[in-house]
């Protein structure tokens, strides 16, 4: 079933920030499987942990304890905010969003949720209800609950809409697929304050922005607030499917046996991958390196934008979650980049999105800037402007 338009490119190998096609050509990967390979392809620490676990056991229900589960629990204590004392592991971002919404619905007894214009939270039915794009939602209603979509970064809209009918507000600190808009601290603080007053939960979706990608461990921390529920995934497992929901004590303590479940969530290989991902994050100073590379990348994109005002409106995003807002459909430019050895993707209607691994080098960024400039000036891209 052709849910995705094919790239007509056969990839046979990945290592670090690079991919190779069947003809042996190397590509700088700024696509990374929609951001999954932030820790690089075949991160050696992640590979080591998965290989070690393969020698022991591959299948184990979460009802059983295991050595790797105990090790992951201790490592999570080093990266999770102190106020989030309970966690549950799943397989994908959509699944994690589903659980966060189910918890808010179950505990508050309310059926109304607040999301934002251009938000993307997943494609399963509950998560899709919180995803704004009308083309994704088409023909799938009615959804499990009522959703109100507010303008992103609109403080007054939040103050008006969040009342005692609302179960939760779910928000991305940096919108991924929606166009790389970054939340202002005032916006996130207002959501926190309104949720406190209304008795609603604040859910932070960091499936794409979290785990160091924006130059801090969790992007929401720039605002100095504490969410009730944190949703994470993608890069945490170094490429292996794993996601997480972490919640406050008062939420976790109210969870009953049988309220949720997952056959493969927290399986031994996922636990091993997560162990490797957290080790890599801590041992290779990923947050610091992502912040430094993100600053270089931001300066490069600003330069490209200034040199191509006829094609580029501006620079979007934070850290290594970056993009160029174009004056046209970004697809022709993405195709031009691919022909020059760079893989990228789009966000929203007009943003060319770049999600490179944290080990991207100064030379990589310089070459990326050159190829972006060439692609923006290419006849196909200019014709689409």
Concise overview:
Helices cover 38% and strands 19% of the residues.
List descriptors.
four-stranded mixed β-sheet; alpha/beta; 38% helix; seven-stranded mixed β-sheet; Aspartate Aminotransferase, domain 2
Structure report:
The protein starts with 10 loop residues before the first strand and ends with a helix. It has helices spanning 32-35, 44-54, 67-79, 93-108, 125-129, 134-137, 155-161, 185-198, 249-252, 268-283, 286-307, 331-339, 362-377, 379-384; strands at 11-15, 18-21, 26-29, 84-90, 112-116, 146-150, 166-171, 201-206, 229-232, 243-248, 312-318, 321-326, 342-343, 345-347, 351-354. It has a 7-stranded mixed beta sheet with strand order 4-10-9-8-7-5-6, sandwiched between helices. A 4-stranded mixed beta sheet has the order 1-2-3-13. The chain is α/β, with parallel strands linked by helices.
Q: What value does the Rg take, in angstroms?
A: 21 Å
Assess the beta-strand content as a share of residues: 15-25%
Number of helices: 14
- Major sheet size, sense and barrel closure: 7 strands, mixed
Number of strands: 15
Helix percent reads 25-40%
Q: Quick one: CATH superfamily of the largest domain?
A: Type I PLP-dependent aspartate aminotransferase-like (Major domain)
CATH architecture of the largest domain: 3-Layer(aba) Sandwich
SS-based class: alpha/beta
Number of domains: 2
CATH C-level label of the largest domain: Alpha Beta
Q: Kindly identify the CATH topology of the largest domain.
A: Aspartate Aminotransferase, domain 2
Low-confidence stretches: none
| Overall outline | globular
């Amino acid at each position: 079933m052709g849910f995705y338009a094919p790239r007509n490119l056969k990839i046979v190998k990945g290592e670090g920030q690079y991919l190779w096609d069947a003809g042996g050509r190397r590509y700088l990967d700024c696509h990374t499987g929609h951001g999954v390979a932030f820790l690089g392809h075949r991160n050696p620490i992640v590979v080591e942990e998965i290989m070690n676990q393969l020698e022991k056991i591959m299948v184990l229900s979460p009802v059983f304890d295991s050595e790797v589960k105990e090790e992951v629990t201790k490592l999570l204590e080093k990266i999770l905010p102190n106020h989030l004392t309970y966690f549950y592991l799943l397989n994908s971002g959509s699944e994690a969003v589903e659980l966060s919404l189910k918890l808010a619905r179950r505990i508050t007894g309310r059926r109304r949720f607040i999301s934002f214009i251009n938000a993307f939270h997943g494609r399963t039915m509950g998560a899709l209800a919180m995803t704004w794009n009308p083309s994704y939602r088409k023909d799938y209603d009615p959804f499990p609950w009522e959703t109100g979509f507010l303008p992103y970064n609109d403080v007054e809209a939040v103050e008006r809409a969040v009342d005692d009918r609302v179960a939760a507000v779910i928000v991305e600190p940096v919108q991924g697929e929606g166009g790389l808009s970054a939340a202002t601290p005032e916006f996130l603080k207002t959501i926190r304050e309104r949720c406190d007053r209304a008795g609603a939960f604040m859910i932070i979706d960091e499936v794409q922005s979290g785990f160091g990608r924006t130059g801090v461990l969790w992007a929401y921390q720039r605002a100095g607030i504490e969410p009730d529920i944190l949703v994470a995934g993608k890069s945490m497992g170094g490429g292996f499917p794993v996601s997480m929901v972490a919640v406050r004590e008062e939420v976790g303590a109210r969870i009953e046996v049988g309220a949720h479940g997952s056959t493969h969530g927290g399986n031994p290989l996922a636990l091993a991958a997560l162990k490797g991902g957290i080790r890599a994050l801590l041992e290779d100073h990923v947050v610091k390196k992502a912040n430094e590379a993100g600053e270089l990348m931001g300066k490069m994109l600003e330069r490209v934008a200034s040199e191509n005002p006829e094609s580029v409106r501006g620079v979007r995003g934070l850290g290594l979650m970056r993009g160029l807002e174009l004056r046209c459909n970004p697809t022709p430019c993405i195709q031009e980049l691919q022909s020059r050895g760079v893989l990228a993707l789009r966000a929203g209607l007009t943003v060319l999105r770049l999600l490179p691994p944290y080990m991207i080098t100064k030379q990589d960024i310089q070459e990326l800037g050159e190829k972006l400039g060439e692609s923006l000036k290419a006849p196909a891209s200019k014709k689409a402007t």
